[in-house]
Amino acid sequence: MRSQPRIVIVGGSLVGPTTELFLRRKGFRDVTVLEANPRPYSQSGGVMGARAQTLDNLAEVGIPTPTITAMKDSDVYAFDISGGESDLRGVSTFPGTVTSWDALHAQLSQRVDIRRGHAVERLVDDAGRTYLVCACGNDHDADLIIWADGRKSTGRALLAPERPLTYNGYVVWRGLVDTPTPAPKGFQRYYDIPGGRLFSVTAPVEPVGRSYFEFSHNLHGHQWQELTGKRPEEHAYMLPGFVKRHPQVHDTIRRNAVGLPHRFEEIIDHAEISGIPVNDVDFPKQVVYHHTSGATSVLVGDAAIPVRLQVGAGLNQGIQQAYDMVDVLTAGRAALDTWEEAHMCELARWVELGRSRAHRNNLGWYLPVRRGQTVAPDVDQWTKPKWVIA
User: Fold this and answer.
1) Which of these three, 252, 280, 308, is where a domain ends?
2) Is the full-model pTM beyond 0.90?
């Protein structure tokens, strides 16, 4: 790779802009970030955990932890509501800081020039030249293309069409709501395992001062298609505006919440809601693709493979993959291939943990990463998982 290669990052949400900061820290200057959406769409609070290593990586590129902290209380409370009462199962502490999509994206947007409205349609590898063709009419030559464009990745569709999204049978509704009374502590999860339902609500999220909630339940794919007009694999994220314009969506959520504590029904009635059908893809055999021109494409984060929301590792895995990849870029193709092997071995365990954990909570259906094996956290639910016999 040239000392100053032309680098194009596809995806302007979180992992993409963070990757540019890592690249510039290492001296790469010809970096362009493309984002399909013409403006940033708030991810309805999008509360997520940033682990200690992620916080260190972000601090190295000038994003201190206090600027992205959404909740000071990192305790997670687990309740069993299958018997009609809220019985406390246990309390754990997330090993890091609770941030939000809005808080982290705001910091990244101040530091990275994201070219919005650049939806990539084609990847052309021809006559010694590799370039991206955007719907807006612009072309972008590249020596390195980093695809950080999320669950419904254009890069994955172009490079690995044999790995399409596959709906897993359940949906996660989430959003912001005025903090209920009494105010929740930390992150509270309520499990109805026999009913295949999981409801979560948090303490107020800064700086908005409202609580964040999630509601997961099983939903047939044809029901999602009736709501949206598209299959879950096609309509992979439902924005709050869509929910507001289509009252049948809210009716579906309410029907699936019947029998939950009354205060949860009130949250659903008054919240700003977005929806995510949980889609999987087959585990990748590769995430690095070398083009005939000498250019290279790399899939990172959810573009490589999504990690289930309940694990608290998706964002962290994506950022760590980008951080480690940037570290080896100047060492040649062999180093990049070694990075690929190492990160896929690490990623496989987190993907399996998310799938097996959803299965234990009666959500969706179980698609193991490795037949006959599953994983278990080494110490507690937040530690790195290890392979065990299923």
Assistant:
1) 280
2) yes
